[in-house]
Amino acid sequence: MYTIIKRMEISASHSLKLSYQSKCENLHGHNWIITIYCRSKELNEDGMVVDFTHVKEKVMSRLDHQNLNEVLPFNTTAENIARWVCEQVPYCYRVEVQESEGNIAVYEED
Ligand SMILES: [Zn+2]
Which of 23, 64, 93, 110 sits at a 20 to 30 Å CA gap from 54? Predict the structure, then answer.
């Protein structure tokens, strides 16, 4: 089994819709650190699980310097973003989304 890990930083804003009062309901920004794990038993014809650059493009091109509420069709919690990223990237099985130092959400396929 081969695994690749791609880490990237994305600057983006969002606001959350919550069932309780929170400062997170106000529009604000983060430098998100997104860590993407992909694995495969076989390598492709280029000798890769998936090209690091392609992984980065799939996520950066959609999210970097965006208001996430305008580009993602769900409440933009770190958990939901992690699941969405996992769905965009081939062979991805785990994503970590760090919203700020010490606040990390992880999505992992069963
Ligand atoms: Zn936030």
Answer: 110
- List phi, psi (to 5°) of 83: -65, -45
Strand order in the sheet with 66-67: 66-67, 2-14, 28-40, 92-100, 103-108
Q: Which helix (H) or strand (E) holds 55?
A: helix 52-63
Q: Residue 46 C-alpha to ligand 1 middle, in angstroms?
A: 38
- Transcribe 60-89 into DSSP letters: HHHHTTEEHHHHSSS---HHHHHHHHHHHS
Phi, psi of 63 (to 5 degrees): -115, -25
Ligand 1 centroid–CA 28 distance in Å is 6
Q: At residue 110, does pLDDT exceed 90?
A: no
Q: State both tokens at 73.
A: 């069709």
φ and ψ at residue 104, rounded to 5 degrees: -130, 130
pTM equals: 0.95
